[in-house]
Amino acid sequence: MRFDDHRVVITAAGRDFGRTLAIRLADLGAEVFLSARTLAAAERVRDEIRDRGKQRVHAFACDLTDPASIRDFAARVGGQTDHIDVLINNGSRYLAGPDLLSASDADVVDTIASGATGTVLTVKNFLPLLLNSVKPDVVTMVSACGTPGHHRSDAHDSFYAAKNAQAGFVDILSKRLRPRGVRVISLYPPDFDNPDPLAEEWETTPRHARAPLAAQSLVECVLFAVSQPRDCFIKAFHFEQV
What we know:
Elements: E1 7-10, H1 16-27, E2 31-36, H2 39-51, E3 57-61, H3 67-78, E4 86-89, H4 105-131, E5 137-141, H5 157-177, E6 183-188, H6 201-204, H7 215-226, E7 236-238
Family: Belongs to the short-chain dehydrogenases/reductases (SDR) family.
Organism: Kitasatospora aureofaciens
Protein name: Oxidoreductase
């Protein structure tokens, strides 16, 4: 699988799974436009990728709780390319704590804004660039917390609220954008292991039936979905929780 002809935008790529996606997609030839809340975080990942000999990578600051920052991110990407092929909505603040009273009002607002409002506004602002592509895909990392009846996470109630908002958004989006040729693909993973893609553990992480879900498998799901012919619309990936 190669992605040399793909231009990919990834939000919250300064660390964790966003960084993993950026590194793996760049390794497979994609031109990557990555963002993080701070420019310094995005530039660190950009430099890691360039140190691997992949030069088609660009770093931007984007605060998903700030509409102006999202607009600026999309405008800056649009200043460098006339289209993007894949938008990966990876950004969403995680907030732990099963007690509703454990979080401040500011933390609740930030959590819901980054996951829910941030995802909607990111798609809205990048949609013109996606519509210029002959193979546009929107990929959203939701969470098992966004599925009806899920209760096995220790995430805060506001994180559940954000993820259910994301789930509702991508569900209607898939129906409304399909006639325009845009596939909307969503992943609903439980908690998963995310080994460093630049470390030996990337190759040695257990991936047997009783092991926790690994980031390697999530990356492979994303790559599989976006590489399918355009008549193959994989709407969602749901995962059994160990």
